[in-house]
Amino acid sequence: MSTLFDPEMATQAYIDSLGPEALAKAAAYTAGAHWLILWELMVSALITLLIVRMGVLEKVSSKVPTHRHWLNALLTSLVFSFFYSMLNLPWEFVSEFLRETRYGRTSQPAGDWLQQAVLSIGTSMIFGSLFFTGLYWFVRRTGRAWWLWASGFAMAVAALLLLVSPIFIEPLFNDYTAVPPGEVRVALESMADEAGIEHDRIFMYDGSRQSNNFTANVSGLGSAARIAISDIAFNRASLDEVKAVTGHEIGHYVLGHVWRVLFALCALALISFLLIDRFFDFFARLFGSKARLSDPVGLPVFLFVVGLVLTLAQPVTNAVIRAGENEADQYSLETVNLPDALAGALVKTAEYRYPRPSPLQELLFYTHPSVEKRVRRAMKWKQQSQ
């Protein structure tokens, strides 16, 4: 029987089931997202230039006694975060709200989007200012090796945020509840039992508030780690599809992919801080700033360089994430063994992630393997299982 099944033909059938209009729309949406990477870098450069030329941070810094280094860093970071967020808000409204609405990727009202944007700005200001107060302490106190110490500090803060985010931050934006009683809950609890995961680690959340995308995720560390599935997935998927997707997320959970991402971020912080140590003066002159590296007034330049490094490093970080996605798909196939259900669920994500990118496009921009590759893996598994 297996000789009659062609994985390649089955893969193409799944992708083609979207229809030419949906595929064209997905291609346009995905290409636009890739152009946004460049536009966001340009917007960041423009805002950095504006803040430097306004001299607002120098005015704040001049009001603080010279020996109050921590207060200088705290207030300067707060003011910078406020001005940057306000200047960037119109761009975010266009790129994140209007664009998503145009492509039908969100049904969120503009007022609710704005409310959540302000909430996000507020939390970012609080956590960001505290982080940079600590960071500038390391810059001042640890000499030329500051970048090494600071990268360790950044990793510790990132781990702390992963620990507290599911408890204190994510609930500010979405409601996380237990999966409603019924056959879906019974099925997911059975899967959790097989993986050795407590039932209270699996949640449903109102992802439809912000997005129409079919999605699920793993977040948190240690006792705060959890699997969260959007209500979109529950409303648009069959029971088998929900099981296949949950098997994928359980794969992320049990394989410890959050730790892999955390160490990758630490490596990026190390590289970013080292490059800032070497090239801060160059970029400061480029933007017309007279700030020194140890001066919080130079924070706009500091963060622009970090953003530039993160942008250039995207192909590497994407490769790390894609490896984890491949492993999670394989875990779902091996433990849940519902290849058609996994393929059906993956096709739903092709609405916002073009399923047939070129190899170069996938290498540079895709955080997930192409849907076509992932469906093909499932179909090959199905052939082998017959």
What is the mean predicted local confidence, pLDDT? 94
Radius of gyration: 23 Å
Q: Please outline the major beta sheet.
A: 4 strands, mixed
Helix/strand/pairing category: mainly alpha
> Outline, from the CA principal axes?
elongated
Strand order in the largest sheet: 1-2-4-3
| Percent helix range | over 70%
Uncertain segments: none
Strand content: under 5%
Q: Cα distance, first to last residue? A: 7 Å
The count of DSSP E runs of length 2 or more, i.e. the number of strands, is 4
Number of helices: 15
Can you write the helix and strand succession as a string?
HHHHHHEHEEEHHHHHHHH
In brief, what are we looking at here?
With 386 residues, the chain is mainly alpha-helical.
Would you write up a description of this structure?
By secondary structure, the chain is mainly alpha-helical. 72% of the residues lie in helices and 4% in strands. The chain contains 15 helices and four strands. The protein has a four-stranded mixed β-sheet. The radius of gyration is 23 Å and the shape is elongated. The model has no long low-confidence stretch (mean pLDDT 94).
Describe the protein's topology.
Blueprint: H1 7-16, H2 20-54, H3 56-62, H4 69-102, H5 110-141, H6 146-169, E1 176-178, H7 183-195, E2 202-205, E3 216-219, E4 226-230, H8 231-236, H9 239-255, H10 257-287, H11 299-312, H12 314-335, H13 339-349, H14 359-365, H15 371-385
Parallel strand pairs: 2-4
Antiparallel strand pairs: 1-2, 3-4
